């Protein structure tokens, strides 16, 4: 019995159909990548302007100005953003605080320095040389509140936020995190308005201007002098809570905004 020869015409057709499929796949991939790349490029300015708007919204929210009855527009006019060199506390001209990207700056070796392990209380590894600060000014341009970007590691993620200090530069007006990846319901409660509210009125320095802040597990005895520096830890999220304490200690120290805060205190004394 003879075995039938494969049909050569059918085989050629199958090869042709295979190459056509490949060609169509290639063209579809090319078109898709052009569409995605163009969208990324075209949408970048919109994304950047949205991020900037979002950041300013957070600055306004932490400032407490809306609670004082100001509109967003009026609040915006009271914000005077400036770039600060952390090591000296000097103001830096020529860098726009509105477009400065804190997340990128902290990773860019050109404008950040590596922290030694023992100094790196906030676990951020590198520290930017410059950061924006937001001065809330009165009608005469006098400082009424100061808003400082702060960040540090929690359990899973770096938590980015703003700390607002009252005019005395030691009392908290507000603390607010706008970016983190802690567990919703546990560490993610750093966003919870109830937890945030605990911070308002807390005092972050002692009389000698040493940083004093403690996020404690267990109840706070309000009759003790330490209570003014203490905040209840988040339930079931001690590590995230400790992260918040550590990042405040870092950013208020001489490694963080210490030189700038000291300069402001001297200017005003
Ligand atoms: C799925 C899962 C997610 C968790 N997320 C967090 C978190 O975001 N922050 C945190 O501090 N602890 C988190 N924990 C708990 C920590 O592992 C650790 O037990 C806790 O921080 C200890 O705090 P406690 O003494 O208040 O329970 C999580 C645990 C599990 C199982």
What does this molecule look like?
A hairpin with a 4-residue loop joins strand 6 and strand 7 (158-166). The strands form three sheets. The protein has a six-stranded antiparallel β-sheet with strand order 2-1-5-6-7-8, with helices on both faces. The mean pLDDT is 92. It contains six helices and ten strands. The protein is elongated. It has one domain (50-268). The chain starts with 7 loop residues before the first helix and ends with a helix. It has 269 residues and is an alpha+beta fold. The chain has helices at residues 8-63, 72-77, 102-105, 193-199, 238-252, 258-268; strands at residues 79-85, 91-92, 112-114, 126-128, 130-137, 143-153, 158-166, 172-179, 214-216, 230-232. The longest helix is centred in the first third of the chain and has 56 residues, at 8-63. The structure holds flavin mononucleotide (FMN). The site of flavin mononucleotide (FMN) has 11 residues, from helix 5.
């Amino acid at each position: 019995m003879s075995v039938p020869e494969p049909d050569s015409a059918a085989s050629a057709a199958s090869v042709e159909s295979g190459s056509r499929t490949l060609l169509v796949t290639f063209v579809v991939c090319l078109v898709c990548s052009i569409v995605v790349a163009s969208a990324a490029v075209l949408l970048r300015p919109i994304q950047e302007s949205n991020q900037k708007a979002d950041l300013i919204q957070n600055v306004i929210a932490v400032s407490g100005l809306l609670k004082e009855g100001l509109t967003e527009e009026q609040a915006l006019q009271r914000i005077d953003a400036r770039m600060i060199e952390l090591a000296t506390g000097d103001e830096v001209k020529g860098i726009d605080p509105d477009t400065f990207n804190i997340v990128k700056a902290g990773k860019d070796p050109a404008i950040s320095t590596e922290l030694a392990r023992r100094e790196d209380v906030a676990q951020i590894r590198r520290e930017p040389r410059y950061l924006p600060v937001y001065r809330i000014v009165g009608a005469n341009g006098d400082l009424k509140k100061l808003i400082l970007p702060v960040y540090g590691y929690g359990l899973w993620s770096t938590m980015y936020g703003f700390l607002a200090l009252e005019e005395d530069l030691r009392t908290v007006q507000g603390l607010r995190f706008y970016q983190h990846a802690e567990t919703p319901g546990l560490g993610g409660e750093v966003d919870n308005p109830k937890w945030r509210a605990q911070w308002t009125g807390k005092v972050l320095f002692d009389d000698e201007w040493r940083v004093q802040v403690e996020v404690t597990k267990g109840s706070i005895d309000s009759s003790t002098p330490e209570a003014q520096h203490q905040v209840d830890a988040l339930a079931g999220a001690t590590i995230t809570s400790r992260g918040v304490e550590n990042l405040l200690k870092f950013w208020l120290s001489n490694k963080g905004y210490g030189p700038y805060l000291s300069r402001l205190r001297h200017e005003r004394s």
